[in-house]
Amino acid sequence: MSASAALSALKRSHQNIREMRVTGYFGLSKQEGHWWFLDTGGERFFSLGMNHIDSATLRYPDNIEIWKSKYGSSQKRWLEESVAPDLRNWGFNTIGWTQEVIIRSSTIHRHSQDFNYEEYQWANLPYCHMLPFTEAHQWELETRLPDVFSHDFETWCDCVAREHCAAMADDPKLIGYFYVDCPTWVHARRPDLKGPWFDPELLESKSGRQKLYELASRYYRVTRDPIRRYDSNHLILGDRYEAMRLLPDEILRAAVPYVDVLSFQFFSEPDEIRSRFETWHMLTGKPILLADSCVPGRHDESSSAASMYPAMLKVLRELPCCIGWHYCGGYLKNRVRRSGFRDEHERLINPQFIEAVRRANRQTIDYVREC
Fold first, then answer.
1. Across the chain, which distance is largest between two alpha carbons, in Å?
2. What span, in angstroms and rounded, lies between the C-alpha atoms of 128 and 363?
3. What CA–CA distance (Å, rounded) separates 336 from 366?
């Protein structure tokens, strides 16, 4: 069956599916034309997530006394006493993605480690977890890209799923699994150091686009299969595509049979996000998660960000295909990202903006409940 025929069949069957969930775990539902997450009790859930949560920001030489005296050098206490209460107070209901950028230079760009199972339990909030199947992130410059057609890649994916999914399979707080943050399918930020998986010049021919479809189909099948081998309860949120770079339809079509949600990093204006999300939803029939984004001006404490956050959230929650927004915080402002809700001494950076976030998030929770 051709790629287009397969997609048409999937979309026809998908139109008849209005609810996808395992009792007691997060799921999906389409109600009166609007997609929603379903929480563990079967209620509509719009995911309001905080991204980038890293306690190492409290361990610079000149502020480590906060870590020692306030939290007893305990990650558990920090998550229970600081992070979780703050996120709930600010109206966030999800831990979106915990990794934080820790070095960003011309040759090295790395993020901190993701949370492990115990850390998520200490935070005690719904969460999304990233599976390290590949290091194909657009910011990663050092690791070789795998041969997804090899038996070695299958073996590696099974190891990843066995380590992560088998441990998390019965956790009702887990929403689902991400794969790669901004995969470099056909683009590269530093082609002199690390090029894309697939030569973008081949996209000019029909046969080249078919090869890309076959490559992506293999990747999404080989990553999906071991997840389902060890965890049949949780959603597959897939790659977090970079919406501002080249993203051929063949990649999204290839993902459709193997993921539950399409996820995007998209730093743009609300109207452009809405338009592109509608296009991708029409192409695939899948609900869409804005997995990493912020509002313009977040770095400027005197900016109009306090008015822009509610406006953008209103657009997203009313968009029928959109099921959540995970905000590119981070929780603490470190010396690399240089943006956050609290600084490295835990002081609120922009109280006016945070109050606007709190109000908008809570209004959104009310909106979802009353829809």
1. 63
2. 23
3. 36
Q: How confident is the model at residue 139 (pLDDT cuts 50, 70, 90)?
A: low
E strand spans, 47-193: 47-51, 94-97, 101-104, 109-111, 127-130, 174-181
- Amino acid in position 51: N
Give 115's DSSP letter: P
Record the tokens describing residue 290, joined without a space.
Answer: 């804005």
Residue from 214, 220, 249 nearest 236 by CA: 220
Helices 151-168 & 206-230 angle (0-180, nearest 10): 40
pLDDT of residue 182: 86
Residue range 86-98: average pLDDT? 98
CA–CA separation, 174 and 344 (whole Å): 29
**DSSP 3-state of 306:** helix
Token pair 């999404």 is found at 220
Q: In angstroms, rounded to a whole number, what is the distance separating the alpha carbons of residues 262 and 281? A: 9
List CB contacts of 147: < 8 A, sequence separation 6 or more: 153
Nearest CA among 184, 189, 179 for reference residue 235: 179
Q: How confident is the model at residue 359 (pLDDT cuts 50, 70, 90)?
A: very high
SS3 264: strand
What contacts 76, CB < 8 A, 6 or more positions away? 118, 122
C-alpha to C-alpha distance for 112 and 98, rounded to whole angstroms:
8
Alpha-carbon gap, residue 359 to 353, rounded angstroms? 10
Write the DSSP symbol of residue 79: I
Element (H, E) at 198: none
* Predicted pLDDT of residue 13: 42
What pLDDT score does 324 carry? 98
Residue 45 forms beta bridges with which residues? 37
pLDDT over 90 percentage in the chain: 76
Beta strands in 118-169 (DSSP E): 127-130
Assigned token pair, 204:
């000019």
pTM of the model: 0.92
The per-residue pLDDT for 15 is: 42
